[in-house]
Amino acid sequence: MNKYKTHDCSSLRENDIGNDVVISGWLHRKRDHGNLLFVDVRDHFGLTQCVLENKSEHFKLLEKLKPESVITISGKVVKRQEGTENNELETGKIEVDIKSVKLLSEAKDLPMPVFGDQEYPEDIRLTYRFLDLRRKEMHDIIILRSKILSFLRNIMIKNKFLEFQTPILTASSPEGARDFLVPSRVHKGKFYALPQAPQQFKQMIMIAGFDRYFQIAPCFRDEDGRADRSPGEHYQLDMEMSFVEQEDIFKTVEPIFFDLFTEFGNNKKINKFPFRRISFEESMRKYGTDKPDLRNPLEITDFTELFKSDEVKLDIFKKNIKSGGVVKGIVVKNISNKPRSFFDNLNNWAIDSGAKGLAYIAFEKNETKIISKGPIAKFFSQNALDSLVKDANVSPNDCIFFISDKYSEAIKFAGLVRTKIGTDLKLIDEDQFNFCWIVDFPMYQYDEVEKKLEFSHNPFSMPQANIDEFDKMDPLKVLAYQYDLVCNGYEISSGAIRNHLPDYMYKVFKKVGYEKKDIDKKFSGMIKALSYGAPPHGGMAPGIDRIVMLLAGQKNIREVTLFPMTQNGQDLLMGAPAEVNEKQLKELGLKINIKKD
């Protein structure tokens, strides 16, 4: 018999009453009732209440033990007294009458409690992550993550994907985020890079003749962290398929996500597949973002032509339009009767967000017609207001919020306003997962700061253009077979149909300044592989961390990561990044040259 336990701390029931048992775990909490000491013992599986009389020889040991000490308890299972049952516990109808106690490991005073729901600063939680993970909420999230990974692995194999592992030490990529570099000891002065993604390797797997590949892949990017993105590293469900078009990938992936979110979505509603397809242009125009939250019913409308009219005398908007700007608006139903403080708070929020304010018109109905009120209503003629009511399908008690700026700035801020109002008015159905595909991304974008053309998404994507016509096209009008899977305002995957033609690859990269010799040097392995017969192929890479975050109902990705770094990329538990000694640097042929402030 195992000397530490006959049962785990969640398995004892009424049919065990009268049996002698052994359980081991952490001392979760104690309650001293004078002649009786109640002790909750917790392990990975659950919790069992134990009881000890004060005359017992083990009373002093348990009485002085600090919470989170590890103990083994032997005793007899007894029924709890009537009225003391705990229906929230699986073991809530029984308790263990303690016969003996053995201390396995004594805990020091805790820097943060495990029992209870107290909120502690993130730096404390991450420094003592092993304690943080003992808390039930955190423990359950990490178990959920494991179950999600197992589910995905099994469903991918069921869909005839083969699991392969690609290299961790590879070559630095000239595109994308910053690489983490690893100096070579043998080849001094040269560096490996940790992979930002297995992009080139998974394409080579297809070129090698395999039909479907996947892996739960670690990826490394030297970029800043935020609530929905880990600094440094993350995991993704990397996948690739041969002889497919974009729609084939959608048809394969949609049932996987529908089944995944059905299994772990806590009975929330999920939109059925096929998921809605929204072009990048439409998404930006209607929602102000390429990752729209479709649970929010609000949409952005263009009002530029109306504000150009002589019937509207709002000079600051007219000035913006003359300099190439636009006017965007959001119609919100049934809110004109909100108190003035609601509108003032929105205006203050807009100013705090960097805007000059948030203009609006509210509509009411008198005895004969719809009338308007609000800070900018006086600048509209009656004809302009009548046109606004008709074109925007306005009803009494509705309100329109207006944003005027350069197109890129106006549409971006309109997207923020849409989210802010939708959240404040509780228009978003929190009991729903709403998926969509964003498609038809532009292949290129113009960098206003660097004054040059650059890739807008994935440089290895296939353009939506015939190779013979590509050179004649305006690069900013070239679309790509690129797509994002979006859920509830989060991009949970990016993907693309790949450019499998070497000659076309040269043309695509030439637009951003790469000559043939540059491509042959930077992507020698990929070009070589594509030159020996490559099938049409494509894939995607859903982010595991964001998927778990959504399914766990969390807002911060660090809550679903076992041992996360802080937002600025520090591992407070292990003390990384850290300095290394001179001997290590000498072996690598490196010197540290940091200017002192």
Q: Care to give the gist of this entry?
A:
With 597 residues, the protein is an alpha+beta fold. Helices cover 28% and strands 24% of the residues. The strands form 6 sheets. Strands 6-9-10-24-23-22-19-12 form an 8-stranded mixed β-sheet, with helices on both faces. It has a 5-stranded mixed barrel with strand order 1-2-3-5-4. A 5-stranded antiparallel β-sheet has the order 13-14-17-15-16.
Explain what this protein looks like in three dimensions.
- With 597 residues, the protein is of the alpha+beta class.
- 28% of the residues lie in helices and 24% in strands.
- It is built from 17 helices and 24 strands.
- It has an eight-stranded mixed beta sheet, with helices on both faces. The chain has a five-stranded mixed beta barrel with strand order 1-2-3-5-4. Strands 13-14-17-15-16 form a five-stranded antiparallel beta sheet.
- Strand 7 and strand 8 form a beta hairpin.
- The N and C termini lie far apart (64 Å).
- The mean pLDDT is 94.
